[in-house]
């Protein structure tokens, strides 16, 4: 079964200012659009998981919007925020929505060790909540030293772990419940979240540190959206379906930072899986994302 049209909520860009630019294959918007068409991707949200100075953040958002202008019917933008600078972040939310007509935001799991659940982020979360924003939570390297393991690419293991830390903290701190209008899309099928939901829920009964019930915690995880970037496998699909159902799953590729062969394999695996019914595939591929992002309604 072919889903025909996929909306990719987890899609990046490769700019010449990227420190690894020389190591990436040739890329521009024409190449990107041609590859999307070949794979059946009819829409994509462009993002970069960074939080920088106010000036650099404004430049990045203008830069992303310039890329999306290649075809505004097929490309949208998830803008960045200078999370360490509250007043500037509030201004950037206004600028992103009212001037750039961004579709939402992409926030890194932590900014210099300050996680999204930190009290210093409350004004930013309150404004995102007021605007009922869609936010893609994207992992970055955790603050401090990472273990020296055989595989030196910390994105393989630390990224999904940092995603898990961030969401766990947002829920336990009560921020997820307090700012319930924010629609969070969690990268890479939620990192380790689906596997650990039960363990996280036991804290309600075994610790006096939080006031949430077990049901509150489980429902918080079920209300998140989960993208499938770098997560197209039978085990992941089965776990997500069992833990959160299929109404909260959306498609993502991690292109073009992921090689074309990997992106193609992910799309083909998703199209051919028997874990999801045809109707569920249609919802995951585009209908749920269309409901989140009005740009792609038609």
Layout of strands and helices, then pairs:
Elements: E1 6-12, H1 29-39, E2 41-47, H2 54-68, E3 75-79, H3 86-98, E4 104-108, E5 110-111, E6 114-115, H4 122-130, E7 134-138, H5 158-172, H6 175-178, E8 183-186, H7 193-201, H8 203-206, H9 214-222, E9 225-227, H10 234-244, E10 249-250, H11 260-272, H12 278-292
Helix pairs in contact: 2-3, 3-4, 7-9
Unreliable sequence segments: none
- Written as H for each helix and E for each strand, in order along the chain, the element string is EHEHEHEEEHEHHEHHHEHEHH
By DSSP, the count of extended strands is 10
User: What's the architecture, going by CATH?
Assistant: Alpha-Beta Barrel
Largest sheet, in brief, is: 8 strands, parallel
Number of domains: 1
What Rg is obtained from the alpha carbons, in whole angstroms? 18 Å
The largest beta-sheet arranges its strands as 1-2-3-4-7-8-9-10
Strand content: 5-15%
Give the rounded overall mean pLDDT.
Answer: 93
Structural class: alpha/beta
- Look up the CATH topology: TIM Barrel
Q: What is the level 1 CATH name?
A: Alpha Beta
Helix content: 40-55%
Number of helices: 12
Q: Which of globular, elongated, flat, extended, rod-shaped describes the shape?
A: globular
